[in-house]
Structures are given as structure tokens and as C-alpha cells.
Design brief:
Blueprint (H helix, E strand, L loop, with lengths): L3 H13 L1 E3 L2 E3 L12 H38 L2 H5 L18 E3 L2 E7 L5 E6 L2 H14 L8 H18 L7 H23 L3 H8 E2 L8 E7 L5 E5 L28 H17 L1
Antiparallel strand pairs: 1-2, 3-4, 4-5, 6-7, 7-8
Helix pairs in contact: 4-6
GO molecular function, one term: RNA-directed DNA polymerase activity
Family: Belongs to the bacterial reverse transcriptase family.
Pfam families: GIIM
Length: 279
């Protein structure tokens, strides 16, 4: 790990401690189970373990097995002819660096910019988009007893959560447009089945801009499950704002709800620990 910012962040989290049932507990070793750094630290440890395992055990054995396999093919041994063995190259598979990898729901890849320089960007994995569309489709499959405003409210919650999760992602407009297109027409068919009506009359009635200057979407009025008369418009992913990530160090301890210095909290923890030990 050569990134000084990450090392500093790791050191801060290791020393931050945590709150357990309202009591601050100082950190002695490691990070809390399920913490935000756990996946990254696991990947770092497993990477080093893979490198060590390959250097100590795998490479020598793999080279020996590959040599014996290919030597048998060269000599034309009966077993190689009987099993129709094929020549094994020195490198069976090589992943291109530009393929990237998926980490915490984001695909991280290298991309060449307009200035010719390579930069790291994040995109939405195709399988994640397909799974999200499948989930929305299941929501709109049946469930015709649900009120229209409640159905749109349920869709909006899922769309808003998905847009917030990928608000820092690059090149998301195409995926958002595709999902908006699917949700729009799936909801149109759901409304048609619910009201036993063709889609065109429904669009003349409910396809309008929610506010002046905004794009058209489904805007319906009705009563929710609590009996309240409200209006709901279907949220569009393409209209969700994109955020720009900026690295910043926290000014205060995020695990402490009061405005206190860490040294004060640590000393209080020692006092509480001594008091608990004497009981």
C-alpha cells in the first residue's frame, strides 16, 4: 500500500474505536466486523496470500505438470492419443488490464481520456443493472390490488436508492436511460391491466410534466393505503443529480455523537473500564 491518504485513513479507523450499547470502546487491534474497510483489507490480505501461495507452491508444480503433459504429447504416448490431449501453452488465460474488476457493486476500469492519458473510472456493472431491472419487473408483475400512488411510491423508493448508490459513477447516463425506458413501459402495461384500458388513453390522462419545465412522466392522483388523497409522479433516473467525489479527511470522530476530543473519550473509557472491573 503506497497511497499515503489510504494509510492515514486506515490508521485513523484502527485507532478510532467504536460505540457498543452507548459505551465507547477503545480499539486494541483490528477493525470492527462488517466495517467499511473490511472488504478492502480482506482483498489486500488475500492478494498477498495469493502471491505467496503461487510463488511457493503453485508455479513450480504447475510448470512440472505442464511439462509432463506436453512431453507425453510430443512422444505420442498411447494415453495421450486415447484421451485426445491438447497442448497446454505456458499461459492458459490472460486477463486484459482494461477489462477492470467489480468492487462493491462498481466496475473499476482504465479509460483513455481526450488528452490521451489513461485514468481510472467507475461504471455500473451490466449484471447489476439487469438484476435491478428484474427486481422492478417483478414488482410490476401482478400486484394490481395495490393503489396506483402506492405502486409509484414503491418504485420511487427503489429508483432513488439506486440513483444515490451510483451517484458518483461515471458514464451512467446510458444505463439510466435504459432502465427509465423499461420502467416506463412496464408501468404503462401495469396500469393498462389494472384499469382494463389501452395505454394510449392512459397516457393522454396521466403522462404530463409534474412541474413546469420538467420532463414528462407518469403523474397520477389517488388515495394511498392510509386513505390520503395525494399525487405521485414516477421518478426518472436520468434526472437524478450526479455527485463528484472529493477526498476529505473527517474533522471529528464519526462514532461519537457529542462534540468531544478523542483523548477525553479515551480517558473516560479507562475510568469506566476500571469502574466495571471493580464491581
Amino acid at each position: 500500500m503506497r497511497d499515503g491518504r489510504f494509510v492515514d485513513l486506515l490508521w485513523r479507523i484502527l485507532k478510532a474505536g467504536h460505540i457498543d450499547r452507548g459505551l465507547f470502546r477503545a480499539a486494541s487491534e483490528g477493525v470492527p466486523q462488517g466495517g467499511v474497510l473490511s472488504p478492502l483489507l480482506s482483498n489486500i490480505m488475500l492478494h498477498e496470500f495469493d502471491v505467496w501461495l503461487e510463488a511457493k507452491y503453485l508455479n513450480r508444480k504447475a510448470r512440472k505438470d505442464r511439462w509432463a503433459w506436453n512431453f507425453g504429447i510430443q512422444q505420442g504416448r498411447p494415453i495421450t492419443v486415447r484421451e485426445n490431449r491438447q497442448w497446454k501453452p505456458a499461459i492458459a488465460y490472460c486477463r486484459y488490464a482494461d477489462d477492470g474488476f467489480v468492487f462493491l457493486g462498481h466496475r473499476i476500469i482504465r479509460k483513455r481520456g481526450s488528452n490521451g492519458r489513461m485514468s481510472v473510472v467507475t461504471t455500473i456493472p451490466r449484471e447489476k443493472a439487469k438484476a435491478f431491472v428484474r427486481k422492478l419487473t417483478e414488482t410490476l408483475s401482478g400486484n394490481h390490488s395495490v393503489s396506483t400512488v402506492d405502486m409509484i411510491a414503491s418504485l420511487n423508493r427503489q429508483l432513488a436508492g439506486w440513483a444515490a448508490f451510483y451517484k458518483f459513477t461515471d458514464f451512467r447516463a446510458y444505463v439510466f436511460r435504459r432502465i427509465d425506458h423499461v420502467v416506463f413501459w412496464k408501468l404503462a402495461h401495469w396500469l393498462g391491466h389494472k384499469y382494463r384500458c389501452r395505454i394510449k388513453p392512459l397516457m393522454r390522462k396521466w403522462f404530463r410534466p409534474p412541474e413546469p419545465g420538467k420532463a414528462k412522466t407518469w403523474l397520477v392522483y389517488g388515495r394511498n393505503k392510509h386513505g390520503e388523497a395525494i399525487g405521485k409522479d414516477l421518478q426518472r433516473l436520468v434526472s437524478s443529480p450526479k455527485a463528484q467525489f472529493r477526498w476529505r479527511n473527517p474533522e471529528v470522530n464519526p462514532y461519537i455523537f457529542r462534540s468531544e476530543n478523542r483523548s477525553t473519550v479515551t480517558s473516560r473509557f479507562n475510568d469506566v473500564a476500571m469502574a466495571m472491573g471493580s464491581v
